[in-house]
């Protein structure tokens, strides 16, 4: 493992994004940035961690990030009045591609380079009380050795020849997140237009793994709710595998 700190100057980061994020904090280690921010933060808050010991992935998976390997952060925003809360994750995926133009998105929000995943996103909503909120967590593989990658089919920015300055990259990502999440909260149609343009799943033959049975077919598009369209049916959740073209 390449053991380094991630961000170095949290005050500089906070100052550079102050027009969008009012409270930016860093911790060396935390169970889950999402859980911690939901418990302690207010809308406009950001939490960055060098290490997550109980991070969460989609569909209940555990995600542990060793120190110095992943940029792990969560942002907390007020939930919009619309019911399309799932679009928050799509917006965050777009923000990643805004700052890493080599990247593409596999539905719903896996960020890929060369077909390999280097980033994941998990959004969670707290709709109780008078001020509903949504937390969006992002983990970006930034500094790994190939032999230490957690799963087959994963990659890291450094392994793809993309070296980052952690502080500058964090500033750029937080600014992009603010723009894309504002589009989501405002119901801006440009968000989904941009998403469809970068989503490599559209037009592909796929297998969608779901608890009530797998689905195979060609992806016809993504609807305005962010659902994937396969064989004329819409699906809001599941794991997508891109299949080889049928000869």
What keywords describe this structure?
247 residues, eight-stranded mixed beta sheet, globular, BPL_LPL_catalytic
In this structure, how is the largest beta sheet organized? 8 strands, mixed
Fraction of residues in β-strands: 25-35%
Note the total helix count. Answer: 5
Q: Supply the CATH superfamily name of the largest domain.
A: Bira Bifunctional Protein, Domain 2
- The figure for the number of domains is 2
Which CATH architecture of the largest domain would you pick? 2-Layer Sandwich
Radius of gyration from CA coordinates: 17 Å
Short description:
The protein is α+β, with helices and mostly antiparallel strands and about 250 residues long.
Structure description:
It is a single chain. The chain is an alpha+beta fold and 247 residues long. It folds into two domains: 189 residues, BirA Bifunctional Protein, domain 2; 38 residues, no CATH class. It is 23% helix and 34% strand. It contains five helices and 13 strands. The strands form two sheets. Strands 1, 2, 3, 4, 5, 6, 7 and 8 form an eight-stranded mixed beta sheet that branches. α1 runs parallel beside α4 and α3 runs antiparallel to α4. The longest helix has 21 residues. It is globular. It starts with 9 loop residues before the first helix and ends in a 5-residue tail after the last strand. The model has no long low-confidence stretch (mean pLDDT 90). One of its GO terms (cellular component) is cytoplasm. GO terms for molecular function: biotin--[biotin carboxyl-carrier protein] ligase activity. Keywords: Biotin, Ligase. This is biotin--[biotin carboxyl-carrier protein] ligase.
């Amino acid at each position: 493992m390449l053991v380094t700190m991630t961000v170095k100057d949290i005050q500089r980061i906070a100052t550079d994004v102050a027009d969008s994020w009012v409270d930016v904090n860093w911790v060396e280690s935390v169970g889950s940035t999402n859980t911690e921010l939901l418990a302690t933060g207010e809308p406009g808050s950001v939490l960055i961690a060098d290490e997550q010991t109980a991070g969460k992935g989609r569909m209940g998976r555990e995600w542990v990030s060793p120190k110095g390997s992943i940029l792990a952060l969560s942002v907390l925003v007020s939930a919009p009045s619309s019911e399309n809360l799932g679009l928050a994750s799509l917006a965050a995926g777009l923000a990643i591609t805004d700052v890493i133009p080599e990247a593409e998105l596999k539905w719903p929000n896996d960020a890929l380079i060369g077909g390999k995943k280097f980033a994941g996103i998990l959004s969670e909503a707290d709709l109780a009380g008078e001020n509903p909120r949504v937390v969006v967590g992002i983990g970006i593989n930034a500094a790994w050795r190939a032999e230490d990658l957690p799963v087959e089919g994963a990659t890291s920015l450094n392994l793809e020849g993309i070296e980052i300055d952690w502080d500058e990259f964090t500033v750029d990502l937080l600014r992009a997140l603010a723009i894309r999440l504002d589009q989501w909260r405002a119901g801006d149609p440009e968000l989904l237009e941009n998403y469809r343009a970068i989503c490599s799943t559209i037009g592909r033959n796929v297998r969608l793994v779901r608890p009530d049975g797998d689905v195979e077919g060609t992806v016809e598009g993504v609807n305005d709710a962010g659902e994937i369209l396969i064989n004329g049916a819409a699906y809001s959740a599941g794991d997508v595998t891109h299949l080889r073209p049928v000869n």
